[in-house]
Design brief:
Number of helices: 8
Strand content: 15-25%
CATH topology: Aminopeptidase
Largest sheet: 8 strands, mixed
Helix content: 25-40%
Number of domains: 1
Radius of gyration: 17 Å
Structural class: alpha+beta
Strand order of the largest sheet: 1-2-3-4-5-6-8-7
Order of helices and strands: EEHHEEHHEHHEHEEH
CATH architecture: 3-Layer(aba) Sandwich
Distance between the termini: 21 Å
């Protein structure tokens, strides 16, 4: 995977002053972008939903809620709410990563072939800014699963634009990453790892804010641009000091 770079700034202390929310009619839900310290109750609801989902699918080893519940390593999180304001999906982002050891991927690839490639991929991209997407889950409701998944697949772009970062990464089983590919993610050509147990062949996916339009579905590209523009307009109208930089899109 070649790298075409943007100039990135350091936003490790990025802070929202209020949650940002929008309605997604295709997913039939409301998406909320927030931070644990800003929305502690919603944060815990999201974690509870993630924990139940991971346990139901027998992969609870991949989610250590006790280690992340304080929210310290979470830059931003997203929660999808149904019409009754129940959390039916979500994901969180940690970062910006400063080195490979900041990423959980080095734990997932510890032992199997591919660890050196994982470290190099992260090292090469750190100067341009990396977010790592973690702890994703979506409802099992077949009428909503696809729409919520597609909405969450776009979520990293909101934070990359707000924090002026170029890259976003995630690790998961191939069948999960296939669903997230719609927003322009590219699976890295490194050996899979049997994480969290031998039933799985976990892979790594990267999104590049500079080149994602080459790989994403047109409908997803359109929604990404519109959602980021809406976010910027909302912040500008509310007087928040969070205006996006000129190269945000």
């Amino acid at each position: 995977m070649s790298i075409t770079s943007l100039q990135s700034t350091d936003d490790r202390d990025f802070q929202l002053t209020r949650r940002h929310s929008w309605r997604d009619e295709d997913a039939k839900c409301t998406l909320i972008m927030s931070q644990p310290s800003l929305d502690p109750d919603l944060w815990l609801e999201y974690l509870g939903g993630a924990e139940r989902s991971y346990r139901k699918h027998g992969v609870q080893e991949a989610l250590d809620v006790s280690a992340i519940c304080d929210g310290r390593d979470t830059a931003v999180f997203w929660a999808a709410l149904d019409s009754r304001e129940r959390v039916i999906g979500g994901v969180r982002a940690k970062g910006p990563l400063t080195c490979p050891d900041d990423s959980h991927a080095v734990v997932e690839w510890e032992g199997p072939p591919g660890l050196s490639a994982v470290r190099k991929m992260i090292d090469d991209r750190v100067p341009f800014g990396i977010l790592e997407m973690k702890s994703a889950f979506v409802t099992d409701d077949p009428d909503r699963n696809r729409g919520v998944t597609r909405a969450l697949a776009r979520s990293g772009f909101h934070a990359m634009a707000a924090m002026d970062l170029q890259f976003c990464m995630a690790t998961s089983a191939p069948h999960v990453l296939d669903k997230w590919r719609s927003s322009g993610g590219v699976v890295a050509s490194i050996p899979a790892t049997p994480y969290p147990d031998p039933r799985y062949r976990t892979k790594m996916m990267w999104w590049d804010r500079r080149t994602f339009t080459r790989h994403a579905e047109p409908a997803q590209v359109s929604k990404i641009f519109n959602e980021i523009l809406d976010m910027d307009q909302t912040w500008a109208e509310s007087g928040d000091d969070l205006a996006l930089r000129e190269n945000a899109l």
